[in-house]
Design goal:
It comes from mine drainage metagenome. By secondary structure, the chain is α/β, with parallel strands linked by helices. Helix content is 38%, strand content 16%. Among the domains are: 311 residues, Alpha-Beta Barrel (TIM Barrel), CATH 3.20.20.80; 86 residues, Immunoglobulin-like. The N and C termini lie far apart (51 Å). The chain binds alpha-D-glucopyranose.
Amino acid sequence: MYEQASHSLLNDVLIALKPEIKYQKLQHFYTRLGANFYAIHSLFSSLYGDRPDFKKQMLHLVETLARQYIKRPAYLKKLDLAREKDHNWFLSQQWVAMALYCDGFSGDLKGMPSKLHYLQDLGVNLVHIMPICDCPEGKSDGGYAVRDFRNIDHRFGTLKDLDELVDHLRKRGMLLTLDVVVNHTSDEHEWAQKARQGDKTFQDYYFTFDDRQIPDMYEESMPEVFPETAPGNFTWDAEMGKWVMTVFNSYQWDLNYRNPAVFIEMLDIILFWANRGVDILRLDAVAFLWKKMGSTCQNEREAHQILQLMKDCCQVTAPGVLFIAEAIVAPTEIIKYFGEDAINAKECEIAYNATYMALLWEAVATRKATLLNKGIRSIPEKLERATWLNYVRCHDDIGWGFSDADIVAAGYDPQLHRRFLVDYFTGNYEGSHAMGLAFGENGKTGDARISGSLAALASLESALNENDADAIDASIKVILLLHSMILSFGGIPLLYYGDAIGTLNDDSYLSDESKSNDNRWVHRPKMDWNKAARRAQPGTVEYRIFSAIKKMISVRKEISAFADRNNRELLSVDNEHLFVFSRFDQGLSHSRVVVVGNFDAEPQFLDILSMQRMGFFQYDTVKDLHTGETFSLLDGNIVIPALSFYWFQT
Ligand code: GLC
């Protein structure tokens, strides 16, 4: 694409703008549009350039951007300017996030302001409220089957309640993340209803087929996401008399991004939420955005182009807003969702570090950091203006998505090792007391994932059931060790509500017909506020977990080396139980931290000489930043207690 073609098209588009847009004072909008237009035009034409109505669609796109810019509240426009100046603001170690269901956490949105002090007590300053858009009751996939993208589900409250919450959050210096479910809609969404009634325009919003011929061809290469409950990727809709693509549940219709109208509609929705004061938008299931026959229909090049286009457009209207990519895919694929280039081909600033999460759990099961050490090294370097969401648990299941080659290199057989992990976390392995549940078992491939609360998977639940003090100690150590890893690794740590007080599995979903076949609900609990109150009583499990995590968070915030500037070095030590890496700050403070985690149930030695050879531990003593303890280095070794960690200042 020649720039001049873009310039000329931009001029044509600006001339054709509707008078109500043209005669507004939109200085910042035009500066940004001018700067991004070449990229927007190139991407839009690569996706939709062969359509006869391309120019009309382009105009429609620019009008959408301008209209939302005009609606953008003044205080957000001011914030945009400030964030543009300080564009790496989100890489700071100051940010600590938590994901929560608003009904589970506080009943509804109105109830949230009175619970925010709990988050602040812990040190959390970024809240991801799980999806709150209007969904059909019983067919909601936990909020991911949206019926109305611009309205809040009455069970959670109203747009006004959200506005009030945004105001509370701002006053407390907290950020808000909300979801935009970009890949699919509920079958009760207005577009789906119209498609069902035979409206061709809206049938084109989805993938609809008269017979099985094409669906069968797609099926040859498409995996199944929910093989037990929603096998196959197409659903017959009797009323429409057509098959429709439904990659997730049968009531979630996949959107057809080959149609530019779909792209523009979804962009408009993204900007709608940006204008409500959302700081970060979590774009759901982005790996699935482009479907191509003969492929897995995941991670396609066009899916990346769509995200790049969304980003370029959002930067014109709401540049202060960031995107999280929810792409739970192989490490070499995840990295691509940051974009290929921070200027020309940027995508989402933030992505879930599902690989790290799964590797941490693997280390818990094996008590070794062998695969963790290998798997982390296989994650390619990311862009500088990009960061991870590092998490231990979230609302979804745990999949064993690390690479087979790494499993082999760590000395295991991939299939057997994945089976071992499922057995371990479901408590079906000798010596395991984990209480997870197998999720998404696939009879054809033998794959399975794991559901369960952190406390259940870390064996705290079984230890409490048996009233076994030693086992309780050990499981609390595991919980803290895992948190120490996500808080120090580099990226935004994402805690999960309930975990800081040791919330157990919640079986109540079994008596709800709409949930009982999806055991992810076992770890989507109602917050027990009486239990939460015990975080202030020394000696209780709640206190032991909460106060230790709180301490870690406050220490993290003080250490500039913990900001994410691609400033991590993985260190190889001669002990298979230890995971060791350094974090450094190349700025003024020149601070350096060596993080050591021992995944074994026995104490392990860290060999000082080898650390010194790598340039660390040059003095006689070293201090652990978390406990403040000082260690002598004269013995040649430091003992890392069982299931423990240190953050050494060095
Ligand atoms: C994402 C969500 C998951 C949901 C799926 C389909 O992966 O995290 O909970 O089931 O998308 O929307």
